[in-house]
Amino acid sequence: MSASLLTNMVTVNEAKQKIIANTLFLPTERRQLRDALGQVLAEDILSPISLPSFRQSSMDGYAIVHSDITFGGIALPIAGESKAGQTGIQTLAPGTAFRIFTGAPVPDGATAVVMQEHTILENGHVTIQEFPVNEGKNVRNIGQQIQAGVVALPKGTYITPGSIGFLQGMGVENVSVYRKPKIGLLVTGDELLKTGEPLVHGKIYESNSAMLIAALKQEHITDIEVRYAADDLDSTIAALTELSVDNDVILATGGVSVGDYDFVGVALQSIQAETVFYKVRQKPGKPLLFAKKRGKLFFALPGNPASSLVCYYEYVLPALRLITGRRDAFLKTLKLPAKYAYSFNGERDEFLKALVEGGAVIPLDGQESFALRSFALANAIIYLPMTQNVVAEGDLVEVHLLPF
Ligand SMILES: Nc1nc2c(c(=O)[nH]1)N[C@H]1C(S)=C(S)[C@@H](COP(=O)(O)OP(=O)(O)OC[C@H]3O[C@@H](n4cnc5c(N)ncnc54)[C@H](O)[C@@H]3O)O[C@H]1N2
Ligand code: MOO
Asked: Which cofactor does it need (predicted)?
């Protein structure tokens, strides 16, 4: 690896700050609301209508004038019916009741709805057993949820199924959102076999690409171009060059350390990507490299599977979220008591695969960077800075929740 790549190792915090400082929003696009799940609004959405847009009954029962009910047991003649979907405007005369159903328009003049469990129906009359009946009872008012013309959802909102339901309910069809990134994924390593190929001595089944594609899918990112490069400089340069044409973010796995066959760093230099940092004072994932070129981001992830995935969650995922307009870019962080003692004496901060259970966090067995069994069972990562290298049972530790 050439001298200029051997920059000083950065700390975890410095690396994260550099990612924040080097990410720009991707362009926006207009999308059908129903296709915008997992994207971020690039505009304030003003409510085109009030919700509800007419007075609605929230119960099956009888619409009345509440002041008619001066004592319990008053009987009112049933003068009409309002059912959900009814479009004509109806008017209720004082001293009468309307049969009404949930979601139906409350007739003009009616001031309350009495649920049918509080009534007795006999000979075309309804006896109201409730007293007093408060004005507005069981009536959803116009604009009670939201008034027309106000901000329904602000720019920067992450679109969830709840957001889609809310906007759909006010007739919104299209929204402006930040585009999802296109990802180029470079897999390097002469030892790698595809599933189905016979296992021979010295070879392993390639697993990082499936793992990273799955992680991207959890972020609703599916536009992924995968290339494989042999462990030589020319094919690594060729693959990175091709992946840089159409993609916004290029991820490489493997070949980023100092071995004679680790070409990713040099190849990135050859294509004039500017190294932002190389090597982070962390375990696992020390040789992580972050570079950029004309707005495109390059992450060279260490080949060890657990290192790759830790670096994805701690650095790549936040970068992907930042460029797509998300404010909550980093994994959700909380402090929890450790269920078991743990200590280390290395000179790097540690990320531990962990399980949050019953209000505590368990560091899992098998933290080596080649081992994925612990990751397969984990729902969180414990972050231990070097200043907290001895953890006693019950000590509070920083926990990063994995997305599920
Ligand atoms: N002399 C030194 N050697 C190493 C250092 C160091 O500082 N000095 N750092 C070690 C650390 S820490 C890591 S992490 C690894 C990173 O190595 P590379 O990124 O160059 O990755 P490779 O050598 O290509 O592979 C490492 C390991 O992972 C397996 N691998 C790679 N790709 C895949 C894949 N797609 N699917 C499954 N497994 C994969 C590969 O077979 C190796 O076992 O370097 C240390 N060495
Ligand atoms: O930093 Mo490496 O990821 O420990 O094995």
From this structure: Mg(2+)
